Amino acid sequence: AWHDVAYHINVVAVPACNDLVALGRDRKPSALVQVAVIDPHKQHLISHTCTEIVEANKDPLFLTGVTFPSEYPASPETLVKLTVYDAKDKTVFFSLVLQSTFLGSATFSVGDLLRAKDERLTLSLRSSDGVCAAGTVVVSRLKMGEMEEVGVDHITTDIPSQKVKQWFFLPSLCLPLSVFKNPVCKVYRFQTVDGKWMIVREQMEECTLSFSIPKQLLSLYIQEDTRRLQDLRELGELSPHWDNLRKEVMTRYGGIISFYQETLAELDKVTGRSFKPSCCKAQKSLEFIPINLHTQRMRVTCPRKTDAFYDIITVGAPAAHFQGFKCGGLQRLLSRYEAEKKSTAYQCIYYSPEHTAKAQEVLSTMSLLQPLITSLADQLLQAAQEQSSTGLTDTLKNLSDKTEQFVHTLKDELVKSALLALHAARPGYITKNQNPATSVTEKSVPLKHQDSIPHHKEYDEEEWDRVWASVAKCLNCVIAMVDKLQEEDSRKQEPVPEQHLADVITSHNPGDWREQLCPLVTRLKECVMEVVEKATKAMTFVLLQEAACSIPQGFLLQQRRDVVFSQALAALACGFVMRLYTGMKDKSFLRQLHLVGLVAQFESLLSTYSEEIGMLEDMEVGISDLQRVVFKITEAKTDDLDHFTVEVPLPQLVFQTLPEEIKEGKPLRVFPVLFNVGINEQQTIAERFGDISLQERINQKNFEMLEAYYKSLSEKVPLECKSGVTQGDIKELLESLGQNVVTKKRKNVEILWIAGTICRRLNGIRFTSCKSAKDRTSMSVTLEQCALLRDEHQLSKDFFIRALDCMRREGCRIENVQKNIRCRKYAFNMLQLLAFPKYYRPPEGTYGKVDS
């Protein structure tokens, strides 16, 4: 019963002491209890955990409970030793055994506690000389609520994804994963305003998506760039100028492929780890891995109330730490690059970002629709073979819809002009009104000046229109033939005079339908393939210009963007999976999920000064790129997967409970928003002497995005249906957030508090970040948890600071610090903390300047 399995804790113990005697008779002891397990086989102590310090009290009541993780398997025979110390100096808190004063100890078995009357044991403390004169310790057994939870730690999931780059979308890929692991659990008891006790459990876990998502992305990046090289080769023969550009671009892509392959090989060597510690944030081989990604859940059990859960994802700011921030981050670098590219594109045709985005869209649409059209065409022939009139009708409708969508995509002036430009890049090209001795390929040709695009005198400008129009004509022929066949079939169903029956039987051939349709369907597929071939080359040529203008700076920026996006996507996938399982039985949440999507609110505590402003510029772009990610829920089985998606398979029994729209694979959108408020001493410098316009712009822009999401949600999902939440509540919070965003106030952390509250009330996913998600993040997470206990569960105001100190001193966040830097101290010093907002300062004795 004592054994702690992830999400299944039923029994914890909380100690108290009575009549403690300090060595100095004129003072009351500042007590804490150290807990250790006695190994039954080796008969030695295994140090486990400590309670918080209760100052100057001979009858201390401790708020921090004791639980045991899986490495301490407990049975009724397991012995537990409690040692009470007088911690006279809190600055030596982390070396208690050596520097604190021993008061007494007691030992009991787990079975004693389970059998105890009133679920508590009162034990005498034995002093160092063995005399029972040191007071008593009381061990109380506390039960968490009996709410049934899904065993998320045992779920397997497949995560394919997309690449946010400038060419075309990627095929998806799946790998089986175990999602959460290595839980750390802490339990507390706090008093409510009416004098009752609530039990609070916080549990922190690593997420295996930290490594699996980046590894999948790297594999997809390699596939994509390999396909780019193949498309460039298939452009055919080009004039020397264009051929040299192509070779240079191909060399660059070859270098990227080699680099990504080396990185993937290094990541494959990493075994047994599911998070990247903050001390490795600038390690080259791990730059695609999110920093210190963890989930944290707080569960609250109150008398006569249903248990409540609050989740948050903590992750270091998605940023390219290895590449550094000497010249800024992505937001600044991309703006500067786009401005410079226009003025230096002398060696190629300049296409605007809108044109290259359109080229990417055309390529991705063709890659989706062409195989689908081919498959539907084959299904149509199969229905004809079976002489299924219903099958013909249904398949033809789908084929018509997809083919019309295909044709509409290609009716674009960009495709035609790119074909002409490609033709002009062939060897021996001569423009209209041009002397054959004059070369045009060395000139810059802006796309916006359509008259300046070269025209081949032997190239018919209307040829492309005829090519894509032929697809529509072939489709019309197929439709007409199907109508004819069905009309003939209808006539055959009419009563036939007996004297003509033999003629009907002898003339009827079951293979006629397929034979009549086959030539037309074959011609349709041939026309589609011809269009795909021409359009692919045209769009590849457009993207060749983008790549040629990108040498070398654009390639370096894209690699930086890949790194940042990889970190952001891993965090988002972790948050989505956790939120999905939490809301699996909430019909309102599931309806919101497929009708509108979820808001994913990223809270950042980065300063707008020095290197951190570069991190924030990286983070802004990475979070923005998440807008192009969608999720798809599937039943866990081996199937071909769709494109552009993060796919989350669920066990069959769970999957069957979902709404039909989700089970049918409807893409589920996520709306990422980012709010930043710097809180450290560097932000003080920025506010007084520097520039905080980046923070102001981010907060204003993302407030508008959050407001737009709320409006869309309120139109489709009545918020009054949500328990305890009304439109008026959220609207009032949004108005307050909007006012705070435009208010000139230093370190206005109310922006973060209000945005977090709105996110939770909108069923969103919460993320908190700082440079490494270790120190400032810990202050924010613990403050948010205590604020939730106060606002949602009536935590007594007398216990607010005590609860905050307990969580920061002995909770999951100090364990996170230990995991990252092997030291149980937050990386702050006293001078830094003077610049922090009051409630973001850790308790005395828990901080000291260390390398982070």
Task: Provide a short characterization of the protein structure.
By secondary structure, the chain is of the alpha+beta class.
The first-to-last residue Cα distance is 38 Å
Structural class: alpha+beta
The major sheet is characterized as: 9 strands, mixed
What overall geometry do the principal axes of the alpha carbons give? elongated
Detail the poorly predicted runs.
Answer: 1-11, 91-98, 146-177, 432-458, 504-508, 638-644
State mean pLDDT (0 to 100 scale). 81
Please state how the strands of the largest beta sheet are arranged side by side.
10-11-12-13-18-14-17-15-16
How helix-rich are the residues, as a percent range?
40-55%
Radius of gyration equals: 33 Å
Helix tally equals 24
Q: What share of residues are in beta strands?
A: 15-25%
3D architecture notes:
The protein is 46% helix and 15% strand. The chain has 852 residues and is of the alpha+beta class. Among the domains are: 11-143, Sandwich (Immunoglobulin-like), CATH 2.60.40.150; 344-493 and 508-553. The protein has a 9-stranded mixed sheet with strand order 10-11-12-13-18-14-17-15-16, sandwiched between helices. It has a 4-stranded antiparallel sheet with strand order 3-2-4-5. It has a 3-stranded antiparallel sheet with strand order 1-7-6. InterPro entries: C2_dom, C2_domain_sf, INPP4. It catalyses: 1D-myo-inositol 3,4-bisphosphate + H2O = 1D-myo-inositol 3-phosphate + phosphate.
